[in-house]
Amino acid sequence: MKILYGINATGNGHISRARIIIAELKKRGHNISCIISGRNDDSLYDIEEFKPFVLKKGFTFSKKDGKIQYLRTFFNIDLIQFIKDIKSIDEQFDLVITDFEPVSAYFSRIKNIPAFGIGHQYSFYKNIPMTVKMRFTRILFPYIYTPIKNAIPSHFSHFNQHILPPFLSKTITNHKLRANSKDNVLVYLVWEELEKMIALLHQIEKQHFIYYCDIQNEKRIKNVTLKPFSENEFKNDLIESKHLITNAGFQLPAEALFIGKKILCKPQKGQPEQEHNAKILNDLGYATISKTIDINSINNWLHSSKKIKIDFPNPLELIMDIIENKNKDFSYEIDKLWQIKKTY
């Protein structure tokens, strides 16, 4: 099939997930063209393998002090450019797949092309536990943001629904490194103010932190090592570090749970999906949740929390089957897949 694959670049989880699925689709002989939107091209990294791809503006979120500014986000939407981006797609496709990417989703509707929405956000189509805010927000996300009829959802649990386990790369599932072998704290907090976070971490002198951020070259400042974004380097540090501090996204906590490490999550203020994820992680006992990242929350977490390891079953083969047989009911196969999950 000739497939248009849309990737939302506002979070690296979308990119990581798309990298796994696109590689497998290409291996099966499908012709893939990609749209990447939601982030400036100068802040994207390790995307060469998505070629051929085009960059579109899409929609981006405005933030300040780790909180989404919805009013500013709304006024920054460029609908004229969005329509131009959709009209600029002049190829014919057999199928559209969107990982929460709006240009490709609306293109599929306008051209009446079969489409799948793949990713965590589509679990909100299902009857799962949600915060009150998320129940209202799901009217917009994903029903309006990426309006797709056919969904391939994933979550930390199935919640007695036809939801897949997280999609994890072979770098994580087949790694040969010694997991949790280094007493480091990996920090990935893209929504927080970098200088404030560095000053805070300097006060916890006995702990070494590896902080991935938007810099050009690696450098060490006291007990904090700053590193530029790199897919391979980040995965290696994730595997070897004992601890992870991050926001309450989906892909990264799922990878950390598979490896088995202590996780401290701070949901991004004003982001209903992250608030939802934080609630689920807390309810399942999979991570420590804190509304703020400060000395007390870090120290309490380091000394009192426990690590959880979850052997999520690999859903990739089933995802391929669903994509290639879009009219078949895979409910039985999805239920059966979860039966091999182990938690300890």
What do you see in this structure?
By secondary structure, this protein is of the alpha/beta class. It has 2 domains: 2-167 and 313-343, Rossmann fold, CATH 3.40.50.2000; 171-310, 3-Layer(aba) Sandwich (Rossmann fold). The chain is built from 13 helices and 17 strands. It has helices at 12-27, 70-75, 79-87, 102-111, 132-137, 170-173, 194-202, 231-240, 251-259, 272-284, 295-304, 316-324, 331-338, and strands at residues 2-8, 31-37, 53-56, 63-64, 67-68, 95-99, 115-119, 150-153, 182-188, 208-213, 219-221, 224-228, 241-247, 262-266, 288-289, 310-311, 342-343. Strand 13, helix 9 (251-259) and strand 14 form a beta-alpha-beta unit. Helix 3 crosses helix 4. The radius of gyration is 20 Å and the shape is globular. The termini are far apart. The mean pLDDT is 91.
Top CATH class of the largest domain: Alpha Beta
Main beta-sheet annotation = 7 strands, mixed
Average the pLDDT over all residues and give the rounded result. 91
* Rg over C-alpha atoms, rounded to the nearest angstrom: 20 Å
- Termini separation (Å)? 41 Å
- Output the structural class: alpha/beta
How many distinct helices?
13
Query: Could you give me the name of the CATH homologous superfamily of the largest domain?
Result: Glycogen Phosphorylase B
The neighbouring-strand order within the major sheet is 11-12-10-9-13-14-15
- What is the percentage of strand-forming residues? 15-25%
The residue fraction in helices comes out at 25-40%
Number of domains: 2
N-to-C order of helices and strands: EHEEEEHHEHEHEHEHEEEHEHEHEHEHHE
Cα shape: globular
CATH topology of the largest domain: Rossmann fold
Please give the number of β-strands: 17
User: Which stretches are poorly predicted, pLDDT < 50 over at least 5 residues?
Assistant: none
In terms of quaternary structure, the protein is: single chain
